[in-house]
Amino acid sequence: MKITVFGSGYVGLVTGTCLAEVGNDVICMDIDETKIEKLKQGIIPIYEPGLEAMVKENQEAGRLRFTADVKEAVGHGLFQFIAVGTPPDEDGSADLQYVLAVAKSIAQHMEGYRVVIDKSTVPVGTADKVKVAMNQVLQERGKNDLEFDVVSNPEFLKEGAALDDFMKPDRIVVGTDNPRTAELLKALYAPFNRSRERVITMDIRSAELTKYAANAMLATKISFMNELANLAEKLGADIEHVRQGIGSDSRIGYSFIYPGCGYGGSCFPKDVKALERTAKQVGYQAELLNAVENVNDRQKKRLFEKIQHYYDGNLKGKVFAIWGLSFKPNTDDMREAPSRVLLEALIDAGATVRAYDPEALEEAKRIYGNKKGLVYTEDQNEALEDADALAIVTEWKQFRSPDFDHLSQILRDKVIFDGRNMFEPAFVKQSGLAYYAIGR
Ligand code: UDX
């Protein structure tokens, strides 16, 4: 099938590449010509395990092409995916200008029937706006007879596991008001749907809301656990025991109940805010969403508070090794990462930070440049050199089993602050280290 994907960022690139992987003829379009030139040469703008190889393979097979030419892009695909960004504007609502600009350019250049698929995370009601924008352009062109359908088909990709999530999805949500389009989408997704039926069809607004509901629910689980973790500390309980105690209830489950130093990333913070905002616009006060966000903002400060408390507020001249900068393992993404809150607070308090991350160093340099008080280090041991204490912010695999005796020797103040509960406290303490984690 012929497919066009607008937006060669994270979602667009993964979508286009995976659709090519199963044999479709895909064009990925982006207005950023430099990005397109690089993609043509096989240079991928993001870090995602397996993606580079898959792009290359499909490019070589001629199933995946890149263009900055809108006309070519619109002319190509029966299916036109919109996978451009929806960044939050000042009040937290999703900014739709890029989505609507794509919709208009599809209408501007189409010469036959098109299925326009919203893949970007967009507020409820966006598909209606896409329709209005497209009809307006078609009218201006005097081409009202050209037909199109709009579908909401939200993505549920996790960074770091995006290819797997696309190839073996839990579900494929298709929101449409036209049964014929639902059939087309089912055919498109048939290769990902072989072992069981994964396509869930519904009306457009429900599909749009499903995406926000999923992310808000997951964020709620995390904030709930973080709230309980803070309470456990005050009560002298261990949240890790509590986690196992409740996770064993199949109604609750073990996943997504890990307490820590807060959730980050491009989705949860933005989507919780945007949903809250949507609620407000229709006159509903979303109490729970507001609390989820507040708990998370507070949680991102927890590690710093613990450090400050340990040092009685005297952080001037102290040196901290930080392991982990990305908002979670297996990505170089630092958007809304808890590490940023910690390192900025430490530096503001007069400390020096020696930062290490297996993938996000370049991104950190892009964000912070030569920030005073921040030293980038090339491996986890180099970060420890001359450090008073170690703080762990991201649970990369390679941090799971450090040599605690060595840490005890090298860290001047013999103390670890762990924002991800990576270790067994009693085991760490055997090496003469003080150990502060979350909720225990
Ligand atoms: C998320 C959704 O999972 C995905 O379905 C959606 O499409 C986009 O948003 P992602 O942002 O890649 O994906 O990250 P995810 O793996 O969900 O983690 C989000 C944040 O929650 C991370 O900061 C992570 O550290 C934190 N988290 C996750 C916890 O603190 N505890 C948990 O138990 C799980």
UniProtKB/TrEMBL annotation:
NAD(+) binds at D30, K35, T86, T121, E159, K270, R335. Pathway: Nucleotide-sugar biosynthesis; UDP-alpha-D-glucuronate biosynthesis; UDP-alpha-D-glucuronate from UDP-alpha-D-glucose: step 1/1. Substrate binds at F156, L157, K158, E159, K211, F256, I257, Y258, P259, G260, G264, K328. It is an enzyme of class 1 (oxidoreductase). InterPro entries: 6-PGluconate_DH-like_C_sf (IPR008927), NAD(P)-bd_dom_sf (IPR036291), UDP-Glc/GDP-Man (IPR017476), UDP-Glc/GDP-Man_DH_C (IPR014027), UDP-Glc/GDP-Man_DH_C_sf (IPR036220), UDP-Glc/GDP-Man_DH_dimer (IPR014026), UDP-Glc/GDP-Man_DH_N (IPR001732), UDPglc_DH_bac (IPR028357). It holds the Pfam family UDPG_MGDP_dh. Residues 321-425 form the UDP-glucose/GDP-mannose dehydrogenase C-terminal domain. One of its GO terms (biological process) is polysaccharide biosynthetic process. It comes from the Bacteria. The keyword Ribosomal protein does not apply. Its EC number is 1.1.1.22. Keywords: NAD, Oxidoreductase. Coiled coil: none annotated. The active site is at C267. One of its GO terms (molecular function) is UDP-glucose 6-dehydrogenase activity. It catalyses: UDP-alpha-D-glucose + 2 NAD(+) + H2O = UDP-alpha-D-glucuronate + 2 NADH + 3 H(+). SUPFAM superfamilies: 6-phosphogluconate dehydrogenase C-terminal domain-like (SSF48179), NAD(P)-binding Rossmann-fold domains (SSF51735), UDP-glucose/GDP-mannose dehydrogenase C-terminal domain (SSF52413). Belongs to the UDP-glucose/GDP-mannose dehydrogenase family. This is UDP-glucose 6-dehydrogenase.
